[in-house]
Amino acid sequence: MRFIDIVKNASLFxxxxxxxxxxxxxxxxxxxxxxxxxxxxxxxDIGINIESSKKAIQNTExxxxxxASVGIDxxxxxxxxxxxxxxxxxxxxxDFDKQLDDWNSDxxxxxxxEKVLMVGETGLDNFWFTKALVAGELxxxxxxxxxxxQERLFKMHCELSKQTKKPLTIHSRNAINxxxxxxxxxxxxxxxxxxxxxxxxxxxxxxxxxKKVEEILSRGYFIGVNGIITFKNAKIxxxxxxxxxxxxxxxxxxxxxxxxxxxxxxxxxxxKRGERNEPGNLGHLLKNL
Length: 289
What we know:
This protein has 289 residues and is α/β, with parallel strands linked by helices.
C-alpha cells in the first residue's frame, strides 16, 4: 500500500490524525470501530516525536485500516507551543547536531516498516513566535535560533522522504513560502508532500492566500482539508478552496489536489467544535462543508 494509491482510489481516508494521542487511550478500539462504521477506509496515525511515532506503528499492528507516519514536529523547538521541549531547545549547537543524527537514525529504522506510509509531522512554524515574543518568552535571537533548527530538522525529513519514497506531511504555520522554498531546494517531487491543515499566513488576505494555494497545487503537492473549513472565522479558506473544487464532491477534491484529514483529537468540525475530534467525523465534515 502506498499513499498515492489511496488517493487514486478515491478512498475515504483520514490523511492526518493522532490516534496515538493519550486522549484515545481509554476507548481507542471504539474510536476505530466508529470510523469503520462511518465508511472510513484508512486512517494515517501521525507521529510528532520518536515515542508517538512508535505508538503509531503499534496501532498499525492492532488495526488493519491504520497506517503510520513517523517524524519530529517542529513545535518541539518552539517556546510557547504545547509541544515545546526545553531540554532540546537548550542544547548546544554540537549537541543539537548529535540529536539530529540520533533522530535520523531512529526515523530511518521506523520508516522501514511496511505500514509506515508517510514522513512527518514535519515543516516550519512561525506562528508561535509572535505569541512568545509578545509574552516575553522569546527574544529575536532565540527566535532565529529556533527557526534555523526547524529548517535543519525539516531538511532531514526531506532527505528521509526521498530515501524512502514516502511523502511528507507538512506543518506550515505562517511559513508557506519558506516551506515551498525548502521543498524546491530539496527537490521534493510532485505527489510526495501534503500541506496538512493549511491556513493563511498572518498577513494574508484572500488573494495572497489563493496565490499560495495555487503554487502548492501547481507543484503537484496536496492540501489537507479539516474541520477548520467549517469554522465561522474561516471565510478566506472557504472562499479560496471553492475556486478549486466543488465542496463535498470527494473525487473532484482529490483530483484538484485536496484531501481530507481530521487532525484528531484536535479541530473538531462545527457543530462539534470544542469536542474531542476523531476519524469518524470525516463524514460529518463532508456534510457540513
